């Protein structure tokens, strides 16, 4: 029990139902990195136990009312999840807990810090494919001197792409850590926080890559300092 108590507890958020595969892979990545995990959904909200870090996973688009805009595309929203994960993120930000936002999670992190989103990326693509794929076919251009660069250890990395929206106006305190060949933001981070990273791709589906596994290891290492 003593060894278990020293392992950080990471909260992994998700929708009320569905998205089983990405959630399972996120839990696997965190456990392999040495963490305990707890899964939180609107149907299974926060328990009494206090966690040491947060991962907000991917999923449906974020309702634009959260960043004071009208819908520009056919709605595919989950307002219940928006509200639930907003509370989780706000709490993590207030306590400066280590957090990782994946795809939708990166977007919601940006929105909770006052930023906005591109609601439809099709008109912004010139040099990158509009295809959604789990395969690492998109070229990621990583910014020197960022935490992301220190973790990935490369200036160019190939990643997957499953999103229709992306970060537009940056939230307070965030800086761009990577873009794609169309200059669309692919990762953001807050250098003044313990660990706050948002990525547009799905590293949980790229766990064969040591570089992608380091994202989860870094989160767990930061959370372990809070145990």
Features:
227 residues, alpha/beta, Rossmann fold, nine-stranded mixed β-sheet, 11 strands, 28% helix, 23% strand
Could you explain the architecture of this structure?
The protein is of the alpha/beta class. The protein has one domain (2-224): Rossmann fold (3-Layer(aba) Sandwich). 28% of the residues lie in helices and 23% in strands. The chain has six helices and eleven strands. The chain has helices spanning 2-6, 20-32, 79-94, 104-112, 147-152, 210-224; strands at residues 9-13, 36-40, 53-56, 99-102, 117-118, 133-142, 156-161, 166-167, 175-179, 185-189, 196-199. Strands 2-1-3-4-11-10-9-6-7 form a nine-stranded mixed beta sheet, sandwiched between helices. A two-stranded antiparallel sheet has the order 5-8. A hairpin with a 6-residue loop joins strand 10 (185-189) and strand 11. The radius of gyration is 16 Å and the shape is globular. The two termini are 14 Å apart. The model has no long low-confidence stretch (mean pLDDT 90).
